[in-house]
Amino acid sequence: MTARRPYEELTDLEKVQKQWHKLSGLHTREEWSAAIVRAATAAEIAANFAIRREFELNSEFDSEFVDSLLRWANGLAGKLDRLLIPLSETDKTKYKKMKTLKKVAGEINTKRNAIAHQGEFCNEDEAQAAIAQAKEFISILVQIYDPKFVLKTRKR
Asked: Which of 68, 88, 97, 131: CA 20 to 30 A from 124?
């Protein structure tokens, strides 16, 4: 039996996948609101991955500085508005995708914030819609940097 690595030692994409597996379990237990929060968390970690890749490809900033930018950008919307969109301005194709993803991210963020900050409860249909949006966001964003990436759903 292999020992599990601590969460903080996982790569961003391993963390995305772990969050996705966790939300699958919540969804099967009808914990709709918690599943939405996990989906939004997975989307934000995917944004972290994309930002780290942008800086790896286009700068010599060290990981501690990039981590400080991730904290400064604060949240999915902030990471798109403050980092990913500005970083992609010189690549028209990537920039267009980021602008499209901004709308999806806004919808994900709105639902997540209603749960986390206002105590909103959601039903199955709302959860399925939010999870589908998060999956679309994650897939499009990550595949810009890793075209073979596929978000795996846990088998039940």
From this structure: 97
Domain residue limits, the chain: 14-145
> What is the crossing angle of helices 12-28 and 32-58, to 10°?
170
Q: How confident is the model at residue 29 (pLDDT cuts 50, 70, 90)?
A: confident
Burial 108-143 (b: 16+ CB within 10 A, else e): bbebbbbbeeeeeebeeebbeebbebbbbbbeebbe
Q: Give the global pTM.
A: 0.92
Q: Are 74 and 40 in contact (CB under 8 A)?
A: no
The architecture of the domain spanning 14-145 is: Up-down Bundle (1.20)
